[in-house]
Write a structure and sequence with these properties.
The protein is mainly alpha-helical and about 400 residues long. It is built from 16 helices and no strands.
Amino acid sequence: MTAASLPGLRTSIVVMSAFAVVSDAVLIAFYPQFFAQRYGMTSAFHVGAYIAAISIAVMFTLPLWARVAKRVETMSLLLYTQCAAGMLCAASYWADSVIAYWVLTMAMFMCKSSYLLMYPYLMRLEKPEDHAHTIGLLSVVVYLGGIFGAVAGGWVLQAAGPAACLWLMAAGDFAQMFVCAWLIRSGRAVKVLSGSDAEPAPAAQKPWWSVATRRVLQLSLVVAVFDFAAYLIRPFFSVYWEQVSPSSLPVQTGLVFAIPGTVALAALVIGKRSRRRFDHVIANLLLGAVGLLLQAAPSEPAILAGRVLYGWALFQLIVKFEVILFRLSTPEAYARDFSVFNFFQNLGVLLSSFAAGALVGRFGAGITFVVAAGGLLLTAALDRLLLRPDRAPAADPAPLDPLGATPHAN
Protein backbone atom coordinates (compact mmCIF):
# COMPACT_ATOMS: atom_id res chain seq x y z
CA MET A 1 0.00 0.00 0.00
CA THR A 2 1.37 3.43 -0.95
CA ALA A 3 1.34 6.39 1.39
CA ALA A 4 -0.82 8.27 -1.10
CA SER A 5 -3.54 5.63 -1.10
CA LEU A 6 -4.08 5.58 2.68
CA PRO A 7 -5.79 9.01 2.92
CA GLY A 8 -8.39 7.92 0.35
CA LEU A 9 -9.07 4.68 2.20
CA ARG A 10 -9.17 6.55 5.52
CA THR A 11 -11.71 9.00 4.08
CA SER A 12 -13.87 6.13 2.81
CA ILE A 13 -13.82 4.45 6.23
CA VAL A 14 -14.71 7.75 7.88
CA VAL A 15 -17.67 8.05 5.50
CA MET A 16 -18.73 4.48 6.29
CA SER A 17 -18.46 5.23 10.00
CA ALA A 18 -20.68 8.27 9.53
CA PHE A 19 -23.37 6.20 7.80
CA ALA A 20 -23.14 3.53 10.50
CA VAL A 21 -23.47 6.01 13.36
CA VAL A 22 -26.33 7.92 11.75
CA SER A 23 -28.16 4.65 11.22
CA ASP A 24 -27.66 3.70 14.87
CA ALA A 25 -28.61 7.15 16.20
CA VAL A 26 -31.93 7.58 14.38
CA LEU A 27 -33.95 5.94 17.17
CA ILE A 28 -31.52 5.75 20.08
CA ALA A 29 -32.97 8.89 21.69
CA PHE A 30 -36.56 8.01 20.89
CA TYR A 31 -37.11 4.35 21.74
CA PRO A 32 -39.63 5.21 24.52
CA GLN A 33 -41.70 7.20 22.01
CA PHE A 34 -41.15 4.62 19.24
CA PHE A 35 -42.49 1.68 21.23
CA ALA A 36 -45.33 3.75 22.69
CA GLN A 37 -46.52 5.04 19.30
CA ARG A 38 -46.03 1.90 17.26
CA TYR A 39 -46.82 -0.90 19.68
CA GLY A 40 -48.46 0.81 22.63
CA MET A 41 -45.61 -0.26 24.96
CA THR A 42 -44.98 2.33 27.68
CA SER A 43 -42.89 0.28 30.10
CA ALA A 44 -39.58 1.92 31.00
CA PHE A 45 -38.19 -1.51 31.85
CA HIS A 46 -39.03 -2.77 28.34
CA VAL A 47 -37.09 0.08 26.71
CA GLY A 48 -34.12 -0.58 28.97
CA ALA A 49 -34.28 -4.30 28.21
CA TYR A 50 -34.39 -3.66 24.45
CA ILE A 51 -31.34 -1.39 24.51
CA ALA A 52 -29.59 -3.93 26.73
CA ALA A 53 -30.40 -6.66 24.21
CA ILE A 54 -28.73 -4.58 21.50
CA SER A 55 -25.58 -4.50 23.60
CA ILE A 56 -25.75 -8.28 24.12
CA ALA A 57 -26.07 -8.82 20.38
CA VAL A 58 -22.98 -6.74 19.70
CA MET A 59 -21.01 -8.17 22.63
CA PHE A 60 -21.25 -11.74 21.47
CA THR A 61 -21.15 -11.31 17.70
CA LEU A 62 -18.22 -8.90 17.27
CA PRO A 63 -15.68 -11.46 18.60
CA LEU A 64 -17.13 -13.96 16.12
CA TRP A 65 -16.75 -11.46 13.26
CA ALA A 66 -13.16 -10.84 14.43
CA ARG A 67 -12.46 -14.56 14.06
CA VAL A 68 -14.08 -14.64 10.63
CA ALA A 69 -11.94 -11.64 9.62
CA LYS A 70 -8.85 -13.82 10.11
CA ARG A 71 -9.93 -15.77 7.03
CA VAL A 72 -12.07 -13.28 5.08
CA GLU A 73 -10.90 -9.82 4.08
CA THR A 74 -12.56 -7.17 6.21
CA MET A 75 -14.13 -5.21 3.36
CA SER A 76 -15.53 -8.34 1.74
CA LEU A 77 -17.04 -9.38 5.06
CA LEU A 78 -18.62 -5.97 5.61
CA LEU A 79 -20.10 -5.98 2.12
CA TYR A 80 -22.31 -8.95 2.95
CA THR A 81 -23.02 -8.26 6.62
CA GLN A 82 -24.17 -4.67 6.01
CA CYS A 83 -26.35 -5.84 3.12
CA ALA A 84 -27.97 -8.37 5.47
CA ALA A 85 -28.40 -5.69 8.16
CA GLY A 86 -30.15 -3.37 5.72
CA MET A 87 -32.51 -6.10 4.53
CA LEU A 88 -33.41 -7.11 8.10
CA CYS A 89 -34.02 -3.49 9.06
CA ALA A 90 -36.27 -2.99 6.05
CA ALA A 91 -38.15 -6.19 6.92
CA SER A 92 -38.82 -4.87 10.44
CA TYR A 93 -40.98 -2.17 8.83
CA TRP A 94 -43.64 -4.85 8.37
CA ALA A 95 -43.24 -6.36 11.85
CA ASP A 96 -46.77 -6.23 13.27
CA SER A 97 -45.85 -7.33 16.80
CA VAL A 98 -43.22 -6.47 19.38
CA ILE A 99 -41.87 -10.03 19.26
CA ALA A 100 -41.41 -9.95 15.49
CA TYR A 101 -39.72 -6.56 15.76
CA TRP A 102 -37.35 -7.86 18.43
CA VAL A 103 -36.36 -10.93 16.37
CA LEU A 104 -35.72 -8.99 13.17
CA THR A 105 -33.86 -6.10 14.74
CA MET A 106 -31.71 -8.27 17.00
CA ALA A 107 -30.60 -10.22 13.92
CA MET A 108 -29.99 -6.86 12.25
CA PHE A 109 -27.73 -5.65 15.07
CA MET A 110 -25.84 -8.95 15.03
CA CYS A 111 -24.99 -8.33 11.36
CA LYS A 112 -24.49 -4.61 11.84
CA SER A 113 -21.90 -5.10 14.62
CA SER A 114 -19.31 -6.20 12.06
CA TYR A 115 -18.81 -2.58 10.99
CA LEU A 116 -16.79 -2.06 14.19
CA LEU A 117 -14.02 -4.08 12.54
CA MET A 118 -13.31 -1.00 10.43
CA TYR A 119 -11.49 0.57 13.37
CA PRO A 120 -8.82 -2.09 14.04
CA TYR A 121 -8.54 -2.53 10.26
CA LEU A 122 -7.68 1.14 9.82
CA MET A 123 -5.41 1.22 12.87
CA ARG A 124 -3.45 -1.66 11.39
CA LEU A 125 -2.74 0.40 8.29
CA GLU A 126 -1.95 3.64 10.13
CA LYS A 127 1.41 4.51 11.66
CA PRO A 128 1.34 4.27 15.48
CA GLU A 129 2.15 7.97 15.80
CA ASP A 130 -1.01 8.75 13.78
CA HIS A 131 -3.34 6.68 15.96
CA ALA A 132 -4.32 9.51 18.30
CA HIS A 133 -5.30 11.83 15.45
CA THR A 134 -7.25 9.11 13.63
CA ILE A 135 -9.07 8.00 16.77
CA GLY A 136 -9.93 11.62 17.53
CA LEU A 137 -11.24 12.08 14.00
CA LEU A 138 -13.35 8.92 14.19
CA SER A 139 -14.67 9.94 17.61
CA VAL A 140 -15.81 13.28 16.21
CA VAL A 141 -17.49 11.46 13.31
CA VAL A 142 -19.32 9.33 15.86
CA TYR A 143 -20.50 12.42 17.69
CA LEU A 144 -21.48 14.34 14.55
CA GLY A 145 -23.26 11.25 13.25
CA GLY A 146 -25.10 11.18 16.56
CA ILE A 147 -26.14 14.79 16.04
CA PHE A 148 -27.45 14.22 12.53
CA GLY A 149 -29.05 10.90 13.41
CA ALA A 150 -30.82 12.25 16.50
CA VAL A 151 -32.08 15.36 14.68
CA ALA A 152 -33.12 13.36 11.62
CA GLY A 153 -34.79 10.75 13.81
CA GLY A 154 -36.72 13.42 15.70
CA TRP A 155 -37.82 15.09 12.47
CA VAL A 156 -38.90 11.81 10.80
CA LEU A 157 -40.67 10.66 13.97
CA GLN A 158 -42.56 13.95 14.10
CA ALA A 159 -43.29 14.25 10.38
CA ALA A 160 -43.80 10.68 9.18
CA GLY A 161 -44.24 8.47 12.25
CA PRO A 162 -42.12 5.79 13.93
CA ALA A 163 -42.14 3.21 11.12
CA ALA A 164 -40.52 5.65 8.67
CA CYS A 165 -37.45 5.83 10.93
CA LEU A 166 -36.69 2.23 10.00
CA TRP A 167 -36.20 3.14 6.35
CA LEU A 168 -33.68 5.81 7.35
CA MET A 169 -31.79 3.24 9.43
CA ALA A 170 -31.78 0.74 6.54
CA ALA A 171 -30.47 3.42 4.18
CA GLY A 172 -27.38 3.81 6.38
CA ASP A 173 -26.64 0.09 6.18
CA PHE A 174 -27.06 -0.03 2.41
CA ALA A 175 -24.84 3.05 2.05
CA GLN A 176 -22.05 1.21 3.89
CA MET A 177 -22.55 -1.76 1.59
CA PHE A 178 -22.14 0.42 -1.51
CA VAL A 179 -18.97 2.06 -0.15
CA CYS A 180 -17.51 -1.41 0.53
CA ALA A 181 -18.41 -2.53 -2.99
CA TRP A 182 -16.78 0.56 -4.48
CA LEU A 183 -13.59 0.10 -2.45
CA ILE A 184 -13.30 -3.55 -3.51
CA ARG A 185 -14.14 -2.94 -7.15
CA SER A 186 -11.75 0.03 -7.46
CA GLY A 187 -8.90 -1.85 -5.79
CA ARG A 188 -8.65 0.69 -2.96
CA ALA A 189 -9.44 -1.90 -0.28
CA VAL A 190 -6.17 -3.08 1.25
CA LYS A 191 -5.77 -6.80 1.79
CA VAL A 192 -4.31 -7.66 5.18
CA LEU A 193 -4.53 -11.47 5.03
CA SER A 194 -1.81 -12.07 2.44
CA GLY A 195 1.31 -14.04 3.30
CA SER A 196 2.03 -14.85 6.88
CA ASP A 197 -0.82 -12.66 8.16
CA ALA A 198 -3.44 -15.09 6.92
CA GLU A 199 -2.04 -18.18 8.58
CA PRO A 200 0.70 -17.30 11.10
CA ALA A 201 3.13 -20.05 11.93
CA PRO A 202 2.47 -21.75 15.27
CA ALA A 203 5.92 -20.78 16.54
CA ALA A 204 5.21 -17.11 15.86
CA GLN A 205 1.92 -17.10 17.70
CA LYS A 206 1.94 -15.42 21.08
CA PRO A 207 0.16 -17.03 24.01
CA TRP A 208 -3.30 -15.72 24.75
CA TRP A 209 -2.47 -14.89 28.38
CA SER A 210 0.41 -12.43 28.58
CA VAL A 211 1.31 -9.22 30.38
CA ALA A 212 -0.12 -7.20 27.48
CA THR A 213 -3.36 -9.21 27.58
CA ARG A 214 -3.69 -8.66 31.32
CA ARG A 215 -3.27 -4.94 30.85
CA VAL A 216 -5.85 -4.89 28.04
CA LEU A 217 -8.28 -6.65 30.38
CA GLN A 218 -7.53 -4.15 33.17
CA LEU A 219 -8.15 -1.28 30.78
CA SER A 220 -11.35 -2.96 29.57
CA LEU A 221 -12.63 -3.28 33.14
CA VAL A 222 -12.10 0.44 33.72
CA VAL A 223 -13.85 1.21 30.43
CA ALA A 224 -16.81 -1.02 31.35
CA VAL A 225 -17.45 1.07 34.46
CA PHE A 226 -16.88 4.26 32.48
CA ASP A 227 -19.38 3.25 29.78
CA PHE A 228 -21.93 2.23 32.40
CA ALA A 229 -21.78 5.73 33.85
CA ALA A 230 -21.53 7.55 30.53
CA TYR A 231 -24.53 5.87 28.93
CA LEU A 232 -26.81 5.43 31.91
CA ILE A 233 -28.53 8.74 31.09
CA ARG A 234 -29.02 8.04 27.40
CA PRO A 235 -32.16 5.84 27.13
CA PHE A 236 -34.50 8.28 28.90
CA PHE A 237 -32.85 11.62 28.30
CA SER A 238 -35.44 12.64 25.72
CA VAL A 239 -38.25 11.82 28.16
CA TYR A 240 -36.49 13.77 30.92
CA TRP A 241 -35.94 16.83 28.71
CA GLU A 242 -39.57 16.84 27.59
CA GLN A 243 -40.63 16.78 31.24
CA VAL A 244 -38.43 19.77 32.01
CA SER A 245 -39.32 21.57 28.76
CA PRO A 246 -42.85 20.42 27.81
CA SER A 247 -43.05 22.75 24.81
CA SER A 248 -40.06 21.16 23.04
CA LEU A 249 -40.70 19.43 19.72
CA PRO A 250 -38.94 16.14 18.89
CA VAL A 251 -36.45 17.97 16.64
CA GLN A 252 -35.52 20.32 19.47
CA THR A 253 -35.15 17.37 21.83
CA GLY A 254 -32.83 15.75 19.31
CA LEU A 255 -30.69 18.89 19.18
CA VAL A 256 -30.34 18.98 22.96
CA PHE A 257 -29.55 15.26 22.98
CA ALA A 258 -26.79 15.90 20.42
CA ILE A 259 -25.06 18.80 22.22
CA PRO A 260 -22.12 16.58 23.29
CA GLY A 261 -21.39 15.94 19.61
CA THR A 262 -20.98 19.63 18.88
CA VAL A 263 -18.72 19.97 21.91
CA ALA A 264 -16.61 17.03 20.67
CA LEU A 265 -16.01 18.81 17.36
CA ALA A 266 -14.93 21.93 19.25
CA ALA A 267 -12.63 19.82 21.42
CA LEU A 268 -10.95 18.31 18.35
CA VAL A 269 -10.37 21.75 16.80
CA ILE A 270 -9.05 23.21 20.05
CA GLY A 271 -6.83 20.20 20.64
CA LYS A 272 -5.37 20.48 17.13
CA ARG A 273 -4.55 24.18 17.47
CA SER A 274 -3.34 24.20 21.06
CA ARG A 275 -0.17 22.61 22.36
CA ARG A 276 -1.59 22.50 25.88
CA ARG A 277 -4.44 20.02 25.92
CA PHE A 278 -6.87 19.30 28.72
CA ASP A 279 -6.54 15.51 28.67
CA HIS A 280 -5.99 14.74 32.35
CA VAL A 281 -7.95 11.56 33.13
CA ILE A 282 -8.99 12.31 36.68
CA ALA A 283 -9.80 15.95 35.90
CA ASN A 284 -12.00 14.92 32.97
CA LEU A 285 -13.80 12.32 35.05
CA LEU A 286 -14.52 14.94 37.71
CA LEU A 287 -15.62 17.41 35.03
CA GLY A 288 -17.95 14.80 33.58
CA ALA A 289 -19.41 14.12 37.03
CA VAL A 290 -20.12 17.82 37.50
CA GLY A 291 -21.80 17.92 34.09
CA LEU A 292 -24.01 14.98 35.02
CA LEU A 293 -25.03 16.53 38.33
CA LEU A 294 -25.94 19.78 36.56
CA GLN A 295 -28.24 17.81 34.26
CA ALA A 296 -29.97 16.34 37.30
CA ALA A 297 -31.29 19.82 38.12
CA PRO A 298 -34.76 20.32 36.55
CA SER A 299 -33.67 23.54 34.88
CA GLU A 300 -33.13 24.11 31.16
CA PRO A 301 -30.00 26.30 31.55
CA ALA A 302 -28.45 23.84 34.02
CA ILE A 303 -29.14 20.90 31.72
CA LEU A 304 -27.65 22.70 28.72
CA ALA A 305 -24.53 23.66 30.67
CA GLY A 306 -24.25 20.10 31.96
CA ARG A 307 -24.47 18.70 28.42
CA VAL A 308 -21.53 20.88 27.39
CA LEU A 309 -19.29 19.77 30.28
CA TYR A 310 -20.37 16.14 29.87
CA GLY A 311 -19.65 16.23 26.12
CA TRP A 312 -16.17 17.72 26.56
CA ALA A 313 -15.13 15.20 29.21
CA LEU A 314 -16.64 12.24 27.36
CA PHE A 315 -14.76 13.00 24.14
CA GLN A 316 -11.40 13.38 25.88
CA LEU A 317 -11.84 10.15 27.81
CA ILE A 318 -13.10 8.02 24.93
CA VAL A 319 -10.14 9.03 22.77
CA LYS A 320 -7.65 8.46 25.59
CA PHE A 321 -8.88 4.97 26.43
CA GLU A 322 -8.85 3.87 22.78
CA VAL A 323 -5.34 5.21 22.20
CA ILE A 324 -4.17 3.30 25.28
CA LEU A 325 -5.77 0.14 23.87
CA PHE A 326 -3.90 0.29 20.56
CA ARG A 327 -0.72 1.25 22.40
CA LEU A 328 -0.95 -1.91 24.48
CA SER A 329 -1.86 -4.17 21.55
CA THR A 330 0.04 -5.20 18.41
CA PRO A 331 -1.14 -4.92 14.77
CA GLU A 332 -1.69 -8.68 14.52
CA ALA A 333 -3.86 -8.63 17.66
CA TYR A 334 -5.76 -5.38 16.99
CA ALA A 335 -9.01 -7.07 15.93
CA ARG A 336 -8.91 -9.56 18.81
CA ASP A 337 -8.05 -7.00 21.48
CA PHE A 338 -10.53 -4.49 20.09
CA SER A 339 -13.28 -7.13 20.24
CA VAL A 340 -12.40 -7.79 23.90
CA PHE A 341 -12.35 -4.05 24.60
CA ASN A 342 -15.68 -3.64 22.81
CA PHE A 343 -17.15 -6.59 24.74
CA PHE A 344 -16.51 -4.77 28.00
CA GLN A 345 -17.76 -1.50 26.53
CA ASN A 346 -21.03 -3.18 25.66
CA LEU A 347 -21.13 -4.91 29.02
CA GLY A 348 -21.12 -1.45 30.59
CA VAL A 349 -23.83 -0.25 28.22
CA LEU A 350 -25.81 -3.44 28.86
CA LEU A 351 -25.76 -2.96 32.62
CA SER A 352 -26.59 0.71 32.23
CA SER A 353 -29.62 -0.11 30.08
CA PHE A 354 -31.07 -2.50 32.65
CA ALA A 355 -30.22 -0.11 35.46
CA ALA A 356 -31.75 2.85 33.62
CA GLY A 357 -35.04 1.05 33.10
CA ALA A 358 -35.22 -0.04 36.74
CA LEU A 359 -34.18 3.35 38.14
CA VAL A 360 -36.49 5.41 35.94
CA GLY A 361 -39.43 3.09 36.60
CA ARG A 362 -39.03 3.54 40.35
CA PHE A 363 -37.45 6.98 40.93
CA GLY A 364 -37.84 8.94 37.69
CA ALA A 365 -35.32 9.93 35.03
CA GLY A 366 -33.48 12.48 37.17
CA ILE A 367 -31.86 9.83 39.37
CA THR A 368 -29.88 8.43 36.42
CA PHE A 369 -27.67 11.54 36.36
CA VAL A 370 -26.77 11.19 40.04
CA VAL A 371 -25.94 7.48 39.73
CA ALA A 372 -23.94 8.16 36.55
CA ALA A 373 -21.88 10.82 38.35
CA GLY A 374 -21.07 8.26 41.04
CA GLY A 375 -20.01 5.84 38.29
CA LEU A 376 -17.48 8.33 36.92
CA LEU A 377 -16.03 8.76 40.40
CA LEU A 378 -15.71 4.97 40.66
CA THR A 379 -13.97 4.99 37.26
CA ALA A 380 -11.47 7.50 38.64
CA ALA A 381 -10.73 5.20 41.58
CA LEU A 382 -10.23 2.18 39.29
CA ASP A 383 -8.03 4.19 36.97
CA ARG A 384 -5.74 5.04 39.88
CA LEU A 385 -5.75 1.44 41.08
CA LEU A 386 -5.30 -0.44 37.79
CA LEU A 387 -3.74 1.90 35.25
CA ARG A 388 -1.13 3.86 37.21
CA PRO A 389 2.21 3.73 35.33
CA ASP A 390 4.19 2.89 38.48
CA ARG A 391 2.13 -0.29 38.83
CA ALA A 392 2.83 -1.36 35.24
CA PRO A 393 5.61 -3.86 34.45
CA ALA A 394 8.82 -2.15 33.39
CA ALA A 395 8.96 -4.20 30.19
CA ASP A 396 5.76 -2.68 28.88
CA PRO A 397 5.77 0.68 27.08
CA ALA A 398 3.71 3.44 28.63
CA PRO A 399 0.44 4.26 26.88
CA LEU A 400 0.07 7.45 24.89
CA ASP A 401 -2.07 10.41 25.81
CA PRO A 402 -5.16 10.74 23.60
CA LEU A 403 -4.18 13.93 21.81
CA GLY A 404 -0.45 13.96 22.33
CA ALA A 405 2.55 11.71 22.77
CA THR A 406 3.24 11.88 26.49
CA PRO A 407 2.98 8.85 28.78
CA HIS A 408 -0.26 8.11 30.60
CA ALA A 409 -0.18 10.17 33.79
CA ASN A 410 -2.89 10.98 36.24
